[in-house]
Amino acid sequence: MIFTILEHILTHISFSIISIVIMIYLMTFFVHESVGLPDSSEKGMIATFLSITGLLVSRWISSGHFPLSNLYESLIFLSCSLSIIHTIYKMGNHKNYLNTITASSTIFTQGFATSGLLTEMHQSVILVPALQSQWLMMHVSMMLLSYAALLCGSLFSVALLVITFRKNINIFCNGKVKNFLIKKFIFGKINYWNEKRSAYKNTSFLSFRNYYKYQLTQRLDYLSYRVISLGFTFLTIGILCGAVWANEAWGSYWSWDPKETWAFITWIIFAIYLHTRTSTNQSLQSTNSALVASMGFLIIWICYFGINLLGIGLHSYGSFTLTSKILNN
Amino acid sequence: MSSLLLNPHKALFTASSSFPLRSDVNAQILVASRRAATRIVDCRPRASRDSFEAEALPETNAKKKNANRKIILFGSSPPPLSEERSGAAGNGRGKPGREASSWGFFQKSLKRALAVLSNLPLAIAEMFTIAALMALGTVIDQGEAPDYYFQKYPEENPMFGFFTWRWVLNLGFDHMFTSPVFLGLLILLACSLMACTYTTQIPLVKVARRWSFKHSAEAIRRQDFADSLPKASVKDLGIILMGAGYEVFLKGPSLYAFKGMAGRFAPIGVHISMLLIMVGGTLSAAGSFHGSVTVPQGLNFVVGDTMNPNGFLSFPTQSFNTEVHVNRFYMDYYDSGEVSQFYSDLSLFSLDGKELTRKTIRVNDPLRFRGITIYQTDWGFSALQITKNGEGPFNLAMAPLQMNGEKKLFGTFLPTGDADSPNVKGISMLARDLQSIVLYDQEGKFAGVRRPSSKLPIDIDGTRIVIEDAIGSTGLDLKTDPGVPIVYAGFGALMLTTCISYFSHSQIWALQDGTTVVIGGKTNRAKLEFRDEVNGLLDEVPELVTIDQNLNG
User: Fold this and answer.
1) Does A166 reach chain B within 8 Å, measured CB to CB?
2) Which of A267, B93, B111, B257 has its CA 20 to 30 A from that of A112?
3) Are A269 and A175 in the same domain?
4) Do A276 and A151 share a domain, yes or no?
């Protein structure tokens, strides 16, 4: 009973804090007079992370097994992983815009998890025999961490594509927002770039506005590359742990089960992404790889949600009753 | 003799003051850098001091005369320098030469094929095609009878205007993951992997391994990252880079430093482990045995009788002559009545009746014995042991009634009265698991529920029935797979090399140009972090100030 109350409280706390964090981001974006606000949003993210982790721990204690046995728990874990990734990159103390992606993704996953659609799954369920293994922890947590990282990275790529292909980037002309962008994203790099440009006198000169755009896309490109590389590492470990587990439980390390197959497809797509990065043409490279990553974004969702929706194959433990609910309504 | 001014909080600088701050030559004084450099010296105080002592001598004794002499600040056994090819690089050159002669034939005959296969767009296209085929394999139902495809993909109404059952059956998409198209693509991808490793990756590493100094400021400025520090010494930069984990080489006014060479090697490892997994997978497919058996509790079977070979390399081994006896099969339940775990207590006997091993297996905990693995995969209800009006016990065979989904249902029938009459009547007994039996009377009405463990009698239409025992049967999967060790080795290597691949290989060049140090660097992965890191390190480089400037300040 006490755990149910605790869970409730923690869910609400995490959701409220993340909403406030989003509000802060919006405020800093539109108003730009940000004295202590970014700092407080950072603290908000950490508070969210702690309350989500608390939620998972309380579920762990109350159910007695690692809380990753159904979709609700995995969504909560996904938002937890998003905050973990946020913290990892924050600890590196890099100025980046990861927070804009992680915070909004967290609110989406958390919102979906706590929404009415999945109320039947809020109860923690018993573990079927096949799931009773130490590999559950390793495999599922790695997979969700990788999903979180890959989702972030591919969202950066989507952003990059949007910026690249929009003809008139009016945010760069709009006074206040322009100021904000210059301050937030590019300041401090200008000197360096100017210097570098002077080194290349004979290269084509970029117009001032396009120059900012170029810098922004380049930063986004690097950032998405790094985050996707991290996610790819996690994905590899997750899939291979799953294979070893399958060899323990079902007697075959690979059985072309739909979920497995889609995880492998995701792996291949991001492997392609990493290979497109090795091409020499810089601008073509970033656009191409961003296209691949955006494709990967869709494929992760198919892998994570689509297969569960169909409820087929050996990974149907986490499948949920959404289909029947939709049909009934 | 000028004095040495040191920032008071840089205690370690003072501690290791056998430093080459030989102010006698240049009459320069080390003032404070903006940030404390203590950390750097703290990291490897001994290494830096040793190397500096080694280096300090030529510096002070004869500066320009010894310009030819190479000074290495770090590392014990240096690979040949690119500048000194003629001398030191003698063995470095001999090796590729030998390789060229032994591989010459292959290179000539395979050069074209290699060039085609190592083409990156081709490899990417292969990967895309494989991904698409796998996606198709999950969309098209696999392993159905041809009739199913005739109905689902009819010729009259083709999907997307062209996709009919002819496509499915002719290309083997009804068994996608063993179809020739798919396997052929995998083989092609494996060839591309090998070709790419050989023609692209290994030469890249060879280039990266070479220590190359850059002697012109222009070449350094052309790097991805370039900066120049006025009033700085390249040697100070060397210590600071060393403290940050770089391997630093210094020769006269030029500096070369690198970090994370493993990040260059790791992609080769990734490719090799992928190949290893593919080889292991092939061996698994060609050389394994698989069998599955349902055994009632108390009975036994011989391993070899159940095993079916999977491929042409499947050869039975001596261990197939092992007899497996199911001592006991039982289940654990949650309080809610759902099954929490299945257990089979198995004994393995040799054919002459000697017990070899005994283990209670469960899901996720198989029995491994001389290459054979026995998994707990399924269960069934074999028989119900009852006594009727005190007679018996009789064993009633249970029949599976409903097998769809996870829920199983077993049933049996005990005739009452004349068993030979055309409309025989009797008592029906149904069970979902081994725990409780539901009994129905002759009319089909519910009569009661009994647990086999309770031994509680039940009277139905004048017949007294006691349920003595429920005998389950265990569903076992047996397997031998010679590919597993290779695949696992590949898995381990792949995990490790993918992790290492995350790190990037960074190279930094610097050149002392008067009092200015020109710095350029590049990295293959973490470009943003590299820029930040180097900027941070450059902030730590102490500024050299001449004595009169210092007095003015």
Assistant:
1) no
2) A267
3) yes
4) yes
Q: Do A126 and B338 touch (CB under 8 A)?
A: yes
* B213/A contact by beta carbon, under 8 A: no
What distance in Å separates residue B525's CA from the closest CA in chain A?
8
Q: Span B90-99, mean pLDDT? A: 45
DSSP β-bridge partners for residue B410: B400, B431
Domain total for chain A? 2
Q: Other C-beta atoms within 10 Å of A215: how many?
A: 16
Measured distance CA(B173)–CA(B19) in Å, rounded: 72
**Is residue A257 situated within a structural domain?**
yes
Do B137 and A256 make contact, defined as CB atoms within 8 angstroms?
A: yes
Q: What is the pLDDT of residues B407-435, one digit of tens each?
A: 777 888 777 766 666 677 777 888 877 77
Enter the ipTM: 0.79
Q: Which residues of B touch A234 (CB under 8 A)?
A: none
Q: Are A52 and A90 contacting, i.e. CB atoms less than 8 angstroms apart?
A: no
Q: Give the predicted TM-score (pTM) of the model.
A: 0.77
* Residue A293 resides in a domain: yes
Domain that holds residue A25: 1-114
Q: Which of A66, A135, A237, A301 to mutate to test the interface with B (most CBs of B within 10 A)?
A: A237
Nearest-angstrom CA–CA distance, B521 and B536: 14
Strand partners, B458: B465
Quote the pLDDT of residue A233: 92
Token couple for A156: 């950066």
Q: Please confirm whether the linkage preceding A258 is cis (ω < 30° from 0).
A: no
Contact status, residue A102 vs residue A83, Cβ threshold 8 Å: yes
Q: Is the dihedral of CA B55, B56, B60, B61 positive or negative?
A: negative
pLDDT in tens, B465-498: 788 788 888 888 888 888 889 999 999 999 999 9
- With respect to residue A195, please indicate whether it lies within any of the assigned structural domains: no
